[in-house]
Amino acid sequence: MNALSTGLEQALLDTLHTPPVRAARAIVFAGSERAFSAGADTSELPAMTPDRIAAYYRGSGSVYDVVSRLPQPTLAAISGYCLGAGFELALACDVRVAADTARFGLPEVGLGILPSSGGLTRLVRAVGPALAREIILFGERFPATEAYRLGLVREVVPAADVLAVALERAAFLSSQPPLAVAWTKAAIDAAAESSTASSLLMEQLAYAALNKSTVEA
């Protein structure tokens, strides 16, 4: 079920820092046909003392934020279960392509915790606080068609095609000027997190930087 244990998170984090990944023009995350990821490895929860939790977010638990801040476009090809930390990883990506078999949900509240790897914040920004409350507090699973209706996925495709479609979208994004992609991603993040004045300034500075690099080229 591709449980996101701390070991798997660390392996993913290490992979993201390798030269081939750093040089990639786009990155696609995929799981298995049965599950993109069914969530965190809950067997690790009892050992998570406050000190260990703090260390976790400085270490392997930082992978979700690292994914969200990559300069390259990131895509999630989602089949089957996309729950808990798996959903949080998908939300950290720029684009999500879902199979018609995909099922989404954030069940953490029922376990006595809450989504804490960026999923809560990103879901609020994606669908607004009212819908985020319903999704998180009820913890109900919902199908790919509902995720599409809410704007959480770009498209829903047959399960057999989900990876191919995600790779096709990645190929298109890879063909775009990488500096323009990176600056645009940064400007969008600024727009979501900053005042209007700060966001407009970011747009203008990014445009100036891109225009300068284009002229020099």
Give a verbal description of the structure.
With 217 residues, this protein is an alpha/beta fold. It has two domains: 6-174, 2-enoyl-CoA Hydratase, Chain A, domain 1; 178-216. Helices cover 53% and strands 13% of the residues. The protein contains eleven helices and eight strands. The strands form two sheets. It has a four-stranded parallel sheet, sandwiched between helices. Strands 2-4-6-7 form a four-stranded mixed sheet. Helix 10 runs antiparallel to helix 11. The mean pLDDT is 95.
Number of strands: 8
- How would a crystallographer describe the biggest sheet? 4 strands, parallel
Number of domains: 2
- SSE order: HHEEHHEEHEEHHEHEHHH
Give a quick precis of the structure.
The protein is built from eleven helices and eight strands. The protein has 217 residues and is of the alpha/beta class. α6 crosses α7.
